[in-house]
Write a structure and sequence with these properties.
With about 300 residues, this protein is an alpha/beta fold. It has helices at about 15-20, 40-60, 80-100, 135-145, 170-180, 195-210, 230-240, 270-275, 285-300; strands spanning about 5, 25-30, 60-65, 105-110, 150-155, 160, 180-185, 190, 195, 220, 230, 250.
């Protein structure tokens, strides 16, 4: 069935990649925060109502994929009220409006809702234990969506990078050109995720929902396959740049303090998603190579 997808947070790297996957069968409207501010209830009502009405008129199935988020992890430590407004209050209103208009909602969340002290991949039903303001507000957003009565799914992801916005890959590309050596933490584990692959996975989920095959599980994980550390990720980026990966030196989290605590372990298990029949994302290293094949020239000249 043809889809009509509304993507709050459309100016972010995930939102841009969702918009880029528009086709004859997938109509995507991806407004940025200036056009659709999720902290303004009236704007949400108008946007979802318009989506439902236009989709019905065009014979398409409406779905909202919420990519809007306050993602400045360190800034959230001293601006938790604003982070809560975007990450929890916004999704609460969005879910309520989606419920009233009978529009399914896919809400994107994060590994930061976990405590980061696990020794094996987190399952969707693993206990939450956020340690940062960002994590707390995202966990509150999940609760709001899942408790709303809406036909809604929460999809957690991690370590996202893309062509747009600021991200770890772009930072490493810049530092490679500026420094002889770069120190990167080697005691935090996770799964790098290309936003283009994540976008494909989210649209696959939306398509399943449209034909009445939405997963029974309402919380799912979607990350690049496998895992590494930030140090390992950085070395791989240097390899893609044709630079000597030995210029990346390992350090500990204690040597690189930040305002917000980072999860030491945030690998998310994709077993439940695979059991629901969703296509696993490709291995993170393979995805990184594809990302550089597509965007490497632009990255090097940015």
């Amino acid at each position: 069935m043809a889809l009509a997808v509304l993507v709050p947070g459309g100016s972010g790297q995930l939102g841009r990649d969702l918009a880029a996957r528009a086709s004859d069968d997938v109509e995507v409207r991806a407004p940025g925060s200036a056009e659709l501010d999720v902290t303004r209830p009236g704007a949400i009502v108008d946007a979802v109502t318009q989506l439902a009405e236009s989709a019905h008129a065009a014979g398409r199935f409406p779905v909202v994929i919420n990519a809007a988020a306050y993602t400045a992890v360190d800034a959230a430590e001293c601006d938790e009220a604003r982070a809560f407004a975007v990450n929890a209050d916004g999704p609460r209103v969005l879910a309520a409006v989606c419920s009233s208009r009978r529009v399914p909602l896919v809400h994107v969340s994060t590994d930061y809702v976990f405590g980061g002290d696990a020794t094996q991949p987190y399952e969707p039903d693993s206990p939450l234990g956020p340690r940062s303001a960002y994590g707390r507000t995202k966990a509150a957003g999940e609760d709001a969506v899942l408790g709303s009565g809406a036909r809604a799914w929460v999809v957690r992801t991690a370590w996202v990078y893309g062509a747009g916005g600021v991200n770890f890959v772009k930072t490493m590309v810049r530092l490679e050109s500026e420094r002889d050596q770069v120190s990167v933490v080697d005691d935090q584990h996770g799964s790098p995720t290309w936003s283009a692959d994540l976008a494909a996975g989210l649209l696959e989920l939306a398509g399943r929902i449209a034909v009445g095959e939405g997963p029974a599980r309402r919380v799912l994980h979607c990350t690049g396959g496998g895992d590494t550390t930030w140090f390992g990720f950085a070395r791989a980026i240097f390899e893609e740049l044709g630079a000597d990966p030995d210029r990346v030196r390992p350090c500990t989290t204690a040597e690189f303090p930040r305002p917000a605590p980072r999860p030491a372990y945030s690998v998310l298990s994709g077993v439940a998603s695979a059991e629901e029949g969703l296509t696993p994302l490709r291995p993170w290293r393979e995805a990184l190579a594809a990302y550089f094949a597509e965007h490497g020239a632009a990255l090097r000249t940015a």
